[in-house]
Amino acid sequence: MQNTTTAPRTQNRNLVPQPRKPVERREAENLLEALSEVKSDSSTACELRTRIEQIVRPVVAKEASRFRNRGVDSEELFQVACLGLMKAIRGYDPTRGVRFVSYLLPVVSGEIKRHFRDHEWSVNVPRHWREKRSELNKFVMEFTQNHAREPRRDEIAEHFGLSEAQTSEFLNAAASYSAISLETPWGTAEEGTAGTLAGTISQLDKDLESVVDRQTLRAAINRLPQRERHAIALSFFGELPQTVIAEHLGCSQMQVSRILSSAVSQLRKEFFVRE
Which intervals carry biased composition (Polar residues) (predicted)? Predict the structure, then answer.
């Protein structure tokens, strides 16, 4: 005979604090009514707010737990949620006939979302792009499920009604939510490239020290007569022999030699004789 006896259901109350009983919520609303009748800076008001916080804290903790595993420590989430609780206590108006919990939860969740928006970005980006990031993630997920591929840039632009430039700015901003540390290991010892990510970004520019000399040389060449400029270009940049240069200039090889010698002498003066 099959045993139909079921084991009593148990709950782990240490994971998420359970909501208080309705009678305690009514007590919180009664305290809020009393709070509205006393001065906000009085000792009585302070005692009332403390008691209200104690009563509804489990509800706040449960709301904060909805945002776990998103890169923010649970204790930090709870502290932000408590900040929303204090704002809700100050902003609640018992005369409007709205239950306090119904007013409290949107305030708490809004405070947590604002924390994610304003404090958890690796790069400071415009607020309108931060607010649209969740919409972008939702669109990409739904589009990928329906089309078995990620949306193209033009499809994202069409969905959000953005220009090409705005789409580029939007995608760059969305990618700035998280960043990799420059101390992240990069490469392998076997390949001889072991180091950090920072080492791949800043490298010595071997041409940097010659920038001034190259700009001075460019200006000096431009001051040469046209025939000499042409000979310099063919000889030193084109790497042509003097016989070929002579054909280009319509002169003898001996004349090419004298032209190049005169041009080089003039360029040397530009570098070494000028004060």
Answer: 1-15
Q: How far apart are CA 267 and CA 221, in angstroms?
A: 7
Structure-token pair, residue 107 = 């305030």
Query: Percent helix, strand and coil across the chain, each rounded to 5?
Result: 65, 0, 35
More confident residue, 250 or 117: 250
**What is the model's pLDDT at position 248?**
86
| Per-domain residue ranges of the chain | 22-119, 127-174, 212-273
Give me the architecture of the 212-273 domain, per CATH: Orthogonal Bundle (1.10)
DSSP letter at 18 equals: P
State pTM to two decimals: 0.41
Closest C-alpha among 120, 109, 118 to residue 70: 120
Classify each residue of 65-86 as buried b or exposed e, where b means 16 or more C-beta atoms within 10 Å of its C-beta.
bebeeeebeeeebbebbbbbbe
The correct answer on CATH 1.20.120.1810 for the domain covering 22-119 is yes
Name the more confident of 113 and 235. Answer: 235
Measured at the CA of 100, the angle between CA 49 and CA 82, to 5 degrees, comes to: 50
What pLDDT sits at residue 112? 84
Task: For residue 197, give the amino acid letter.
Answer: L
103 CB-near residues (< 8 Å, 6+ apart): 88, 91, 92
Listed in sequence order, the DSSP H helices in 92-240 are 100-119, 127-147, 153-160, 164-174, 211-222, 226-232
Instruction: Output the CA–CA distances (angstroms, integers) from residue 156 to 142, 173, 258, in the order listed.
Output: 12, 14, 65
DSSP secondary structure code for residue 71 in this structure: S
Confirm if 133 and 177 have CB atoms less than 8 A apart.
Answer: yes
